[in-house]
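Task: complex structure prediction.
Instruction: return structure tokens for all chains below.
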Amino acid sequence: MTTSIPVAIIGAGQAGLAMSRCLTDRSIDHVLLERGEVAHSWRTERWDSLRLLTPNWMTRLPGHRYQGGDPDGFMTGGEVVDLLTGYGRSFAAPVQTNTTVTSIRTCGGDHVITTDQGVHRARAVVIATGAASTPRIPALAAQLPAAIDQITPIHYRNPDQLADGPVLVVGASASGAQLADELRRSGREVTLAVGDHTRLPRTYRGMDIHWWMDTIGLLGERHDEVPDIARARRLPSLQLVGSPDRRDLDLNALADAGVELVGRFAGVSGSTAMFSGSLANLCASADLKLGRLLDRIDAVAAERGWDSELTPGERPTPTRLPAPVSTRDLRSVATVVWATGFRPQYPWLDEHLLDRKGAIRHDGGVMTEPGMYVLGLPFQQHRASSFIDGVGRDAEALTAHLAGWLDTTSSRRLAGV
Amino acid sequence: MTATPTSTTAPAEPNGVPLTKLHGTIAKLTESPALAAFRFTARNHWVTGTASTSTIHEWHGAGADQVHAAEFSATADHPTLGHGHGPTPHEYVLHALASCVAAGVAMAAANRGITLTRLESVARGDMDVRGVLGIDPDVRNGFSSIELVVDVDGDAPRESLDALIASSVKRSAVFDILTAPTSVVVRPA
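Output:
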């Protein structure tokens, strides 16, 4: 059975729902095709202790503002599920759950979406399947001794799930830093392999770092304003944790907790792991970038005359470097956690829509095939594009473009073109 | 590494870096990744004792066999056991790191519109030679650590100048060769 619908949105997470709300506001008929339930990945692919990195007030979506009593707190994964479920209900988002898309093909100007629950024919498609669906696991994973358990943050839940014994966490962005910290607190020996990372304090001059990034205009920076957008889109996630005590989770904090810091996991030789000697340089680089950000914040604070109201700018101490460790006998490691980011994977899309690395070709979310859009990718239109708080802005822009596309195709059809 | 601007307009080769050519090359290799497969070759012949000379002439890249402007040569020797024909091979490694980072700083500066007035560095490598002499099998042969101190000056604030070093190291071939393991195969001819 084929259903015709003006717009199909693939995925009912923050991006899909934001788009749905914008289309609803313009009375554009649409359906959301969701492989599971609303906020599926938040229900099934997040560890137990995870909280948002952004404060509660920073969960603005089209037609939604945080109304709770703890605007500066950080939502748990369960609370994000409630937020998105409630948001979808608030405007009766037309979600078709438990529907997995198997292919999207363009045919006679329409997009034919085949799912395990039937076929939809749509004039426009919005891909909102998220930026964090398929873990990126380095090729050297295949060289690890078979006795080692390997896991990614998508399947990790809590320390009890892991076999007893030392853990090597690979990657020191938000996921890797948080899991290393949690596993260490559970009493395990933890080694953290640190590559390129973005160091940030949780608060600066008494205010949350995300408030600052929003206030100084950093989060609003557009994709056509930054000098190297490809690089900006690849930047590692922020080395932060959202916790009630607003603590820092940088390498110094991890070292204080007893986590052993080593360089990037660069190779395996027999049963020996080899770590890059680049750690000192990467730490210096992260400290340098952090210093530049805090300078920028201080400049804005001074310009706006806030210096008397704010606490003085106390700079985080430079990253303390451990004695270099270049190898580790992997026979003493029970589990490797790959917190090495995510990669795009769209096996259900035509290859010409993707670039050499399998990512969707797009300009600010407008794909190369007319009537096809993508939403929710890192730095899609601006720095906060993949944040709950930022996706709405992109959804509004894409909705305007999409509405124009529908108008064009309708008039063409009426004219019999 | 200093460049003297000859006019008030932006020079075509700031810091001696052919910017247009650089950007053209990046664009070309982005479009055609196959052209990015390069191979570098050094041919070495033994002179006497611990001395040997490498000649470097041909290289492959951009889809074709190429040659340098001249056949370059470099001779290495040993300071105490050799005959003073040249510095040690591992000092060439220090030179390789320093010159790789210098090239990167000059390019990054050119890219960012910074004119350099000074770019000097000192590379130091620490080595416990009981390793290479086979005295203690627990001591590694190579450097236990390397330090590169870069002194850069130009028409930009200190922080921007220091940032040039960081971005150069981020894209340095020799830094990567030294810090990450590389598969090395040595076999009879």
